[in-house]
Amino acid sequence: MPELLRMPEIAAATTSAVLAGWPVAVNTRFAAQDVIATVETDKAVVDVEAESDGVILRTLVAAGTEVDVGTAIAVLAGPGETVDDIDAALAALGVSAPAAAEGAAEGAAASNGHGVRASADAPFLPDGTVRRFASPLARRMAGEAGLLVGDLTGTGPGGRIVRRDVEAALAQRVAHEEAEVHDASPALPVAPEAAPVPTPAAAPAPEPPATPAPASRHAAAPPETAPATATARFTDQPLSRMRKAVAARLTESKATAPHFYVRGVARVVKLLELRADLNDGADVRVSVNHLLVKAVARAHQLVPAMNVVWTGNAIRSFAGVDVAVAVATGSGLVTPVLTSVEARSITEVARATQAFVARARDGRLQQSELEGGSVTVTNLGMYGVEEFAAILNPPQAAILAVGAAKQEAVVTDGRLEVATVLRVTLSVDHRPVDGATAAQWMSAFVGLLERPVRILS
After folding, report:
1. Per residue in 77-88, pLDDT tens?
2. CA nearest 174: which of 213, 140, 147?
3. Active-site residue flag, 430
4. Distant-in-sequence, close-in-space partners of 447: CB < 8 Å, separation ≥ 6
5. CA nearest to 246, candidates 353, 326, 309
6. Can you give the pTM of this predicted structure?
7. Catalytic residue among 176, 182, 259, 430
8. N or C: which end of the chain has fewer CB within 10 A?
9. How far is residue 182 from each of residues 33, 110, 231, 298, measured CA to CA in Å?
């Protein structure tokens, strides 16, 4: 008996997702746990695995379509099962005729005149045009920016269009628009009827004079008006799904979580020396941020009251320490979660974090990698920022904002000297964590940075 494959709920409270692609072609057999569909959420790409062996009889949703959770996206059958009338099977499964017709149209568009479905290996489409390959992230970015994938030049493997190609096209478009504005001559007269000066909606229209003005031998010159601007000097960029999601989450966080802030300053000369020793002849390079992530986990062990989240009904405490790491990508900020940091070596932390960064910038993070954690580390030190405060990443209880390490004048035992210091700001949710707890945590964290050997223990 055929069955429907429906759009899964990738994450809690997710109402829709984008069907990014069909790795398995229609009428091609697949095995249990094979990836048969790829789905994109606001921040991750998720592979949908088959629960059992079977075959896709028909896809009901085209790649690149945003679909509500629970919507039928394909018709599946068991291995060797024959279905003579797919439309009748769809009707029996409760799928309306328009949806079935849409799927049939997609199938026709994806096949050539001999009924052979086009695949990723076919360089040409049925109408003879060249097939353009693009990553799901690149297709989404192009669609949101109003670009046609067919007009882009791919620089990825095999000419595949990737994120940087879309960004390059956007930059070229902006440069072209700015050039048009620069070339426009504001001195050219503009007919009033062609470019009327808008009147504010709130301003009432001027009433005509009660009596006409007396005639004069010399007509009064019309009042001078400011020259009309030929082209607006701005560009509106449509909001991406990720940008909308980030805006919604941070707005909710700032509105519902009572933030308070604890600041600390650490002398990090020994920390930098430890990093240099760890990298001497090592295959995996350890950064200051990797050591900070490890130090955060250690501080959470020393002050376990910080290793919590607010659930609304309870304060949930964790045995292990999962730390999220903020990663900037071309389409927004993501925070993959590094699990059990307290049990990992510094080399394992470095390797896992580097893998997260690479996959995040390619748009290949899994949804499960973005969930969990009680604290986030966000670092703007590489941009020269000395100090800043960050907004909590709900439902986590804290986020640590890290600035740049810089040399400053400090006082040691009454003597003035120069030391390399690092400034950090801990934003804390006051619902599950009290001020004294956060202060104890900051004291422990600064102590770890100044005596960094304990980070590795």
Report:
1. 888 787 878 888
2. 147
3. yes
4. 454
5. 326
6. 0.61
7. 430
8. C
9. 57, 45, 9, 56
